[in-house]
Specification:
The complex is a heterodimer. Chain A is built from 20 helices and 25 strands. Chain A is an alpha/beta fold. Chain A has four domains: 219 residues, Pyruvate-ferredoxin oxidoreductase, PFOR, domain III (Pyruvate-ferredoxin Oxidoreductase, domain 3, 3-Layer(aba) Sandwich); 187 residues, Rossmann fold, CATH 3.40.50; 79 residues, no CATH class; 116 residues, Rossmann fold, CATH 3.40.50. Chain A has a seven-stranded mixed beta sheet, with helices on both faces. A six-stranded mixed beta sheet of chain A has the order 3-4-2-5-6-7, with helices on both faces. In chain A, strands 20-22-21-24-25 form a five-stranded mixed beta sheet, sandwiched between helices. The relative contact order of chain A is 0.09. Chain B contains eleven helices and twelve strands. Chain B starts with 43 loop residues before the first helix and ends with a strand. In chain B, 28% of the residues lie in helices and 18% in strands. In chain B, helix 1 crosses helix 6, helix 2 packs parallel to helix 10 and helix 3 packs across helix 4. Chain B is α/β, with parallel strands linked by helices. Classes of the chains: A alpha/beta, B alpha/beta. At the A-B interface, helix 1, strand 9, helix 9, helix 11 and helix 12 of A face strand 1, strand 2, helix 2, helix 4 and helix 10 of B. The structure holds iron/sulfur cluster (SF4). The site of iron/sulfur cluster has 11 residues of chain B, from loops.
């Protein structure tokens, strides 16, 4: 039969099912096929905190969204063009996000009265007209799979489990994905269990053939590869990129990497990843608690290692005292906070960026800590290296703020040239650094570098430089215990000045304002940090497509901020700050630079949707044009 | 009080293997820092500091390869007074910090100085996990059974009923027995000594340093300001013979004048008690075996310590057994990975298995 082939420039697919249905794996495989094909892509896994919530319930629904295109894209996409729903609960949980006219593929097998009730349906949505606005494909995926793998003699349950591969095969056919990577993957994964291997490969192939032979699917789609910068690419998640960045920083500094960590969602994958790379001289220590994780990292740093701890918001709260000790000892220490919904246990598997103020201020006393944030999954690599540069150069704890959506989300990564990565010089102290009044040479552990204000890092094992450090206030230069009021005042200000001085090492802030060069710049600037880079960028593009002007700046460094940021903010008539918190960056910008920054916030555990954000920006632009007050509800004032 | 003779251990003594030796002979003075010691007059901490400063030259290690890490409390000022590397950290966390140091630096001799509040209250979790992991380090636990630095509240080792500033009607807490706790936490070296017996203290330190793994040394330390006399039973000429139950590996546990008393096993319950040797016969006295794999008897001996005001307590090495250390094993895994797979290739790591090229 002849097939219609439709050209598309981008597609968003969401796979949804029960936690036990293997939707994360299915999404991941589709992503790998798509990466291999050469589309640009961005992904958003979304799963419940419970490992196995009761089967068939709304609480147990797990989903994976992948956005891919023939051009560069910035986000996992707002609304799916295609929803694959493996049971009634998956349909019900995801239907509100699906726009009219979109395609829905439903596994009808589980639409029994019992499962409908579990999902909260009193009538079957397949029959009551609920799905009329959509292009609905009803397929009994489970029965088709069981029938296809019959020859392998698996139990019915094991046979049915391969239905995710059937669905993957069908979608792979619809979107012309290459099949080899998945077949190779299944072959390796089930190498030890040939029956399961054959069953899964068969289910996958049968799904593909089902699309090919059934008239139900009349259209195939083609999304051309994206034109990307030349070079080598791979797909990478934020947590993997962060782990690689830490290993690279260890390599580039010559410092052995030591990770002290306690398992916590969504940071554990960094621990898992690093524990696989011992051949790089990486030591991973799964500590008894969060405090021990950072304590061991600080102990390792005292001994001359690159000490790292990885955690999420609740863990940062527990580590606060040790981070304060690191501030006092002035030793390099990396604290990676993969933020999640808070406060308290909050929403462990959902994303949020509400730890910014905790990172900056969540310690007793004046305890300044530099803060850096990655903007996309692949950018976690660069952010990790930058955090290590600051920690080692300035002898200070550094906080890296990633979040759940970066950690588990993925995108193509243009692989860096390893030979061109920057060096990080630990510049260990190896000899005396001062001549006393009586002419004898001595070592002053708190004598500072003029430029960086960093103190010498003399590690145990270095002859002649024996010294004691501790949390009690240090005397300037000697590092002895000091209760002298004037000395305390000096030391508090000096530690702050040291962190402030990092700004001198930062490049100028990039402002994306296309008309600015020709004097036709925007009047409004959107400022963000962290994972909102994608949605803000996508929203800005949408607004620009309307012929409107808007500028965008995204902060890598939250503390200290770049020296030019104040002037940049004051150069615009309106500054808008979208954040997944209640306005923490806006509070800082208002407090530090006296600009009337408008805060737009969302704390629903999900990334901003580009379309909604674009509407918000249009609203601010219209208000600015008309000079009428902004529509209510468009922003919340920051509590200052 | 006379020194308690220690047996010659039959175990390998490689706790300091890998730590570079000093070329010259060392003196106490070299280990003494220029900082003024600021404990109260008469504090037991002085005696321990003196003993340690006198003992360290005997180890013959490069001074720069010795590190003392402490937490918070009176005894935790210890590192400031030793001219080695040192860190006075935060309350209760010294074992965790020392763990990171010991894992990454096999060439260091790592010591933790802590107190009953620091190690057993706020830092209890780190202490038990260090012990079970058997990190190669020595923990000196100064037990004065009181909070000194915060001026006299009861501690987790204070006897029930203790009247202090925070317990005017007497404490209603049950105290920890640090030795029992350590044995329950899978410790491989557990000893108890007394600040006033410098020879015994030094002998125990020698064994602790030689042990590969975590050595826990509980030191009964008098705080003359807030808990004076807590250990007088072990110091007074009249009472000490009946108070100290000396533990010597391979010898019957006998004490009192002319060895009048002995520790015997109760056939009914299997637990230990003190009896008149004349009543039970010398053969019934338990022979101390610090090297026994099974810690039950060592635990039973530790229970002979009074929970209330101390009148009697076993002193010496309760347990001294070999078990691989966490830090050796962790370093071994890194070495195995490097020797079997070769040192990592960063470019190959970053590329992973699935790459594609855009021309
Ligand atoms: S308070 Fe007690 S333990 Fe502390 S220094 Fe004074 S005497 Fe020693």
């Amino acid at each position: 039969m002849t097939r219609q082939v439709k050209q598309l420039d981008r597609v968003i697919i969401r796979f949804a099912g029960d936690s036990g249905d293997g939707m994360q794996l299915t999404g991941d495989r589709f992503t790998q096929e798509t990466a291999a094909f050469g589309n640009d892509l961005s992904t958003l896994p979304n799963f419940p905190a419970e490992i196995r919530a009761p089967a068939g319930t709304m609480a147990g629904v797990s989903s994976f969204q992948v956005h891919f295109a023939d051009h560069d894209i910035l986000t996992p996409g707002d609304a799916p063009d295609v929803l694959v729903a493996m049971n009634p609960a998956a349909l019900r949980a995801n239907l509100p996000d699906v726009p009219r006219g979109a395609t829905i593929i439903v596994d009808t097998h589980d639409f029994s009265a019992r499962n409908l009730t579990k999902a909260g349906y009193s009538e079957s949505p397949l029959e009551d007209g609920t799905l009329e606005p959509f292009a609905l494909h009803e397929v009994d995926l489970t029965s088709l799979t069981v029938e296809a793998v019959k020859e392998f003699g698996l139990s019915r349950k094991d046979s049915a489990r391969a239905k995710n591969m059937f669905a993957l095969g069908l979608l792979s056919w619809m979107y012309g994905r290459p099949t080899e990577p998945t077949i190779e993957f299944l072959t390796t994964r089930f190498a030890a269990r040939p029956t399961l291997r054959d069953a899964n490969v068969t289910a996958f192939r049968t799904g593909w053939n089902f699309g090919e032979t059934t008239e139900a699917f009349a259209v195939r789609y083609e999304i051309k590869p994206a034109s990307m910068a030349t070079g080598r690419y791979r797909n990478v998640t934020g947590n993997a990129a962060l782990a690689y960045g830490l290993i690279a920083a260890s390599r580039q500094s010559g410092l052995p990497l030591f990770l002290g960590s306690y398992p916590i969602t969504p940071a554990s994958d960094v621990l898992h990843e690093l524990s696989k790379h011992k051949r790089f001289g990486v030591t991973t220590f799964q500590a008894e608690d969060e405090i021990a994780g950072v304590g061991a990292a600080l102990g390792a740093a005292f001994g001359g290692a690159l000490g790292v701890t990885t955690t999420s918001g609740p863990g940062v709260a527990l580590k606060a005292e040790t981070i304060g000790l690191g501030v006092m000892l002035e030793l390099p220490l990396l604290v990676c906070d993969i933020q999640r919904g808070g406060p308290s246990t909050g929403l462990p598997t959902k994303t949020e960026q509400a730890d910014l103020l905790q990172a900056l201020f969540g310690r007793n006393g004046e305890a300044p800590v530099p803060v850096v944030a990655p903007r996309s999954p692949a950018d976690c690599f660069d952010a990790a290296m930058e955090a290590a540069r600051i920690a080692v150069t300035y002898r200070t704890p550094v906080m890296l703020l990633s979040d759940g959506s970066l950690a588990n989300g993925s995108e193509p990564w243009h692989l860096p040239d390893v030979a061109a990565l920057p060096r990080i010089d630990p510049a260990f102290q190896t000899g005396h650094n001062h001549v006393a009044d009586d002419g004898t040479e001595e070592f002053l552990p708190y004598l500072r570098d003029d430029e960086t204000l960093a103190r010498p890092w003399a590690v145990p094992g270095t002859p002649e430089l024996m010294h004691r450090v501790g949390g009690l206030e240090k005397a300037d230069r000697t590092g002895d215990i000091s209760y002298d009021p004037a000395n305390h005042d000096l030391m508090v200000r000096t530690r702050q000045a040291k962190v402030d001085a990092i700004a001198k090492s930062l490049p100028p802030t990039e402002v994306d304002d296309p008309g600015a060069e020709s004097g036709q710049g925007a009047r409004m600037l959107v400022v963000g940090w962290g994972s909102t880079y994608g949605p803000i960028g996508a929203a800005v593009r949408r607004v620009r497509r309307d012929g409107l002007k808007v500028a965008q700046a995204h902060l890598r460094h939250l503390n200290p901020m770049p020296s030019d940021i104040g002037d940049i903010l004051r150069g615009y008539d309106r500054v808008v700050v979208p954040e997944m918190n209640l306005g923490q960056l806006a509070l800082l910008l208002r407090g530090r630079y006296l600009v009337d920054a408008k805060s737009h916030t969302q704390v629903n555990g999900m990334p901003f949707k580009a379309a909604e954000l674009a509407d918000v920006l249009r609203g601010y632009l219209a208000a600015l044009e008309d000079e009428i007050p902004e529509p209510r509800g468009m922003h919340e004032e920051v509590p200052v | 009080m006379t020194a308690l003779d220690l047996p010659t251990p039959s175990l390998s003594r490689d706790g300091l293997v890998g730590v570079p030796p000093s070329e010259a002979t060392q003196t106490r003075k070299e280990f003494t820092s220029d900082q003024e010691v600021r404990w109260c007059p008469g504090c037991g901490d002085y005696i321990v500091l003196n003993a340690v400063q006198g003992f360290l030259p005997e180890l013959g290690l490069k001074r720069e390869n010795i590190v003392f890490v402490s937490g918070i409390g009176c005894s935790s000022r210890f590192p400031y007074y030793l001219d080695t590397y040192g860190m006075h950290s935060i309350h209760g966390r010294a074992p965790a910090i020392a763990t990171g140091l010991a894992i990454t630096r096999s060439d260091l001799s790592v010591w933790v100085v802590t107190g009953d509040g620091d190690a057993l209250s706020i830092g209890g979790n780190h202490l038990i996990h260090a012990l079970r992991r058997n990190i190669n380090m020595t923990i000196l636990l100064f037990n004065n059974r009181i909070y000194g630095l915060t001026k006299g509240q009861y501690s987790p080792t204070s006897e029930t009923g203790k009247v202090t500033k925070s317990t005017p009607m007497g404490s209603v807490d049950t105290p920890f027995n640090p030795v029992s706790l350590a044995l329950g936490a899978e410790a491989t070296f557990v000893a108890r000594t007394i600040d006033s017996d410098r020879t015994h203290l030094t002998d125990v330190l020698r064994e602790a340093a030689a042990h590969r793994g975590t050595s826990l040394v509980e030191i009964y330390q008098n705080c003359p300001i807030f808990n004076d006399g807590a250990f007088d039973a072990f110091k007074d000429k009249d009472s000490r013979e009946e108070a100290v139950i000396p533990l010597r590996h391979g010898e019957p546990v006998r004490f009192g004048s002319d060895g009048r008393l002995g520790v015997v096993r109760d056939p009914g319950t299997g637990s230990l008690r003190v009896a008149e040797v004349a009543d039970v016969g010398a053969d019934a006295v338990v022979v101390h075996d610090a090297h026994a794999d099974d810690p039950s008897t060592a635990f039973a001996i530790s229970r002979l310590t009074n929970a209330g005001v101390l009148q009697q307590s076993p002193i010496g090495i309760f347990r001294q057994v070999e078990r691989p250390t966490y830090d050796d094993l962790a370093r071994g895994q890194v070495q195995t990975a490097q020797s079997s797979e070769g040192e990592g290739d960063l470019a190959a790591l970053l590329a992973g298995k699935d790459t594609w090229t855009v021309d």
